[in-house]
Amino acid sequence: MQVYQAPLRDMKFVAHELHADDGFGDLPALAEFTPDLIDAVLDEAAKVAQEVLLPLNHSGDIEGCTLENGVVRTPKGFKQAYDRFREGGWCALASAPEWGGQGLPESVNKLTEEMIVAANVSFSLYPGLTHGATTALESHGSDALKQRYLPRLVSGEWSGTMCLTEAHCGTDLGLLRTRAVPQADGSYRLTGGKIFISAGEHDLTANIIHLVLARMPDAPPGVKGISLFLVPKFLPNDDGTPGPSNGVSVGAIEHKMGLKGSATCQLNFEDSTGWLIGAPHKGMEAMFTMMNTERVSVGVQGLGIGEAAYQSAVWYAKERLQGRALSGTKNPTGPADPIIVHPDVRRMLMTMRAWNEGCRALCGWVSRALDAEKHAADPEVKQRAADFVALMTPVVKAVFTDLGFETANLAVQVYGGHGYIAESGVEQYVRDARIAMIYEGTNGIQALDLVGRKLPAHMGRYLRSFFHPVSGFIAERKGDAELGKLVEGLEKAFGALQLATATIAEKGMADPEEAAAAATDYTRLLGLVAIGFCFAKAAFVARDRIAAGSAEPGFYRAKLVTARFFFDRLLPQVSAAFGAIKAGKGSMMALAAEDF
Amino acid sequence: MQVYQAPLRDMKFVAHELHADDGFGDLPALAEFTPDLIDAVLDEAAKVAQEVLLPLNHSGDIEGCTLENGVVRTPKGFKQAYDRFREGGWCALASAPEWGGQGLPESVNKLTEEMIVAANVSFSLYPGLTHGATTALESHGSDALKQRYLPRLVSGEWSGTMCLTEAHCGTDLGLLRTRAVPQADGSYRLTGGKIFISAGEHDLTANIIHLVLARMPDAPPGVKGISLFLVPKFLPNDDGTPGPSNGVSVGAIEHKMGLKGSATCQLNFEDSTGWLIGAPHKGMEAMFTMMNTERVSVGVQGLGIGEAAYQSAVWYAKERLQGRALSGTKNPTGPADPIIVHPDVRRMLMTMRAWNEGCRALCGWVSRALDAEKHAADPEVKQRAADFVALMTPVVKAVFTDLGFETANLAVQVYGGHGYIAESGVEQYVRDARIAMIYEGTNGIQALDLVGRKLPAHMGRYLRSFFHPVSGFIAERKGDAELGKLVEGLEKAFGALQLATATIAEKGMADPEEAAAAATDYTRLLGLVAIGFCFAKAAFVARDRIAAGSAEPGFYRAKLVTARFFFDRLLPQVSAAFGAIKAGKGSMMALAAEDF
């Protein structure tokens, strides 16, 4: 059964308690978002997620989207849910007040995102893609385009898409063929086919605004000749109502492994009118503005699905009676004990729990940096926050989505045979989680971004935004009588990370394939240390709260247990990653392609 | 695209070259199976897999099975394929000649199984379940039952099932409720509902023979009161033709994550006539005869799907053009290089390759032990082989299926976005592979079997059947100038395994929860060392063959590369598992159930 209650207590811990000393300080620009207001937003978001979106998650998976005569229908209930969502102002949450948004801090917004994807990731893509399009348009669009499109996109009256991929090119967008021919009036005519377009066509909004990568006739080859265009499904009339159709048609909707409530379309543009966003041939830059924000959000998809899978597994593990506890019967009046008594079931539940809490904690830190990058008054803080965001974006995207998938799989394993059956609802989490490891840049691409771009940038400056707080924390807390052992575990893992970094820097300088060969393991290693650091911090906060006589000792004691479990059982993965990195590219690259 | 060519060269390497010195010696009882005959069988099996079964794998997934008016239909083409399969004698391959089987050694049979599951795992379950039923019947059935049912089951004219699970009990079969009431004529009347019955109903055979676990009215409670019954779908006439219907009906077919070509049924028995197999209340023993054989076969499912996924990924990685090699353009006349040039793609392909070759090698060793257990003349050899099989059965089942799933996932990742689309065929491998981690005893149950039963049995005797050859090999080969480094890697991993074993033995003696808490990590650890041992042996064979001027140096050089990759990149996982084991049960068991 799909069970989900937003983990509000832990979210508030992350929002208010865990990162108070993260060095980004208070942000006066966000002063209006008081803790009370933040809590109220989180509480309301939880209601929407649980009451409006969750009930449509499983039915949406079963029913899927349909395409008939060029019209795409979303699953039953999605339209009504979207209307409620939009009317409640949830589409506009994170957008700029200037365009009708609520300007919510990212440190709060990412938590609401987590709830929404946990409840219904397919649904989340409709407003999610709009938000991505909004971001790109806001940063790079002309005033005229912004005035015309942003208010309706921000409100959710219209939705947006990102049209990048073509059948023959995804990662290597330099190969793309969609053409944009300039017209006398300053507009362009676009012709070409795009695939994998999330929310490319649907029945939720009156218009759909496509952001399309295309190539002008005079464009230089490769990625340096790609421009970004805004192409509406319907050309808006001057009063803003949708006007004539614009030559955008749906070739097919993709038959996907999961995410079936989300309409993923093949779109054909035939002489469709579009307007340039940003400078000619600078489309990749505009796209990356959007992409970087989206990558953190895709990471949050991993976390959200992981949380829903965890809760569904906990529910089952308490409900399902099989066998007796090794430590003696726990349910003497029943025919058997609930399976939560069994150590191997505990191992799975605690693993899921630790990944979720760890990713949530790390995401909280990265979100605070997103806010500081935007709003900090001190340029040094602003720069440090930006560095940290640049460094952590690929880590959050890749590691959270890998872990979300692992967590969803553990839920199926807790259910046993019942988990393999659609009715259980948990195999859906596996199928839904799988795509997040691929889209917005595969996790391999994230790893290359981290190792190839982020590590060497500015002589390793990005990395210092992470290494300094970690080494400072270790130095300060190592001697703690109670928690010193955790800190020592962190220190050891951090040592491995430092060594791995030095190895990659040294070898990769001489041979970029060496860095690339280490990329995925290094990303995991960095993620593990970052999560470990968050757990170590959380343990100190929890310990101090208990000592100070907190009224919620249960929450803090559980946090201490989960932190210990992470250090006991999951952080040892550091040595596997480190060992693989040390080995270098030799055996990985030795076979000739024809020997495979 | 689903690409599969049976890896015959590697299979013959495993069958003839790798395990020649495994200490089980030649088995005169199997002398008729000369290397030439074995090769001929493998070559023919490859044709059947590739030509008859593979073309139905993807279409079977798309179409699935249907239930209409109590009749189950398998996907288009399955019936014709089954007839060809049966007529070719493939159903009878591993069965005893006494009943019309061909008595193929398991060391060959497991390789043919690998091919069949690689080509079409859904199809494989129909003959596969029959083979399981045959095994149980052969070992525990009365002569009359054997005479009546075995010839037709062995030939594949009829098929078999295993009816264990009920809605409320899977792992804990002691809870089952299906009742068997004795009749005056020595038969029984069975009433109850079973779920998850593979091949429970279908249109491939004239009759279906169900092996059903049920409880007699006077049965003691729990697992000690379960008996095994043979319940045919149609009661056979005296001439062997199917006679009257026997009250077995299909309640539903399950909607599963994958394996959609396989009809998984809910079966209802209503006063169905059955006959006891084995002694009253000893049904679990009879069932475990079958279960243990089947567990190795389920492990082979992981391997087979892993191989198909690997080959499909290699095909795509050579075909798909994206980006340019970091070491310089490799395909100058094309728009981009094939993605196989990229280190992170290599990492995935080599990982898949190493898991597959490693599991195949280990399976070859276990299969030789299965043969020696059955046919060795020397009682010492027979005992040692039986010990090794007992030890390795849970490892093969759990580790191979975990790795098969990981491998299938890597294939999707190599395909990127295209891998998430049904048409690619690779997401099917993920869905199909997922069940193998669950059925025939979840992988957690395998781990408990290993740690709770197999390790302590006879004062650790089973383990010695593995530890002795490994330590002997290390002592003998450690100083090798060329490959000594591999052996040192193995020695280190083996040392961790020995320490982990001692830790579990010590802690587990005082507290069985400690052993259970370590079980899954220990199983992985043992699997890694066993695969490492096989790779180390393979490296020596390959090195010596090249030195001796083999006509196939390419094959052996590739084997050396894959072995090195395993030691470089995968064996380091040992330290993660070892670290987790050392931590003990503390943080895993600390939370109260209500704190989840």
Kindly describe this structure.
- Two copies of one chain form a homodimer.
- Among the domains of chain A are: 26-139, Butyryl-Coa Dehydrogenase, subunit A, domain 1; 159-282, Butyryl-CoA Dehydrogenase, subunit A, domain 2; 443-584.
- The model of chain A has no long low-confidence stretch (mean pLDDT 97).
- With 596 residues, chain A is of the alpha+beta class.
- The radius of gyration of chain A is 24 Å and the shape is globular.
- In chain A, a hairpin with a 5-residue loop joins strand 4 (179-182) and strand 5.
- Chain A has 17 helices and eleven strands.
- In chain A, helix 2 (35-53) packs across helix 5 (106-140), helix 3 crosses helix 5 (106-140) and helix 9 (379-415) crosses helix 12 (461-477).
- Chain A has helices at residues 8-18, 35-53, 57-63, 78-87, 106-140, 143-155, 283-319, 343-375, 379-415, 426-434, 443-454, 461-477, 484-510, 512-547, 553-570, 573-583, 586-589; strands at 66-68, 71-73, 159-163, 179-182, 188-198, 208-214, 227-232, 234-236, 242-245, 248-253, 264-277.
- Chains A and B meet through helix 7, helix 8, helix 9, helix 10 and helix 11 of A and helix 7, helix 8, helix 9, helix 10 and helix 11 of B.
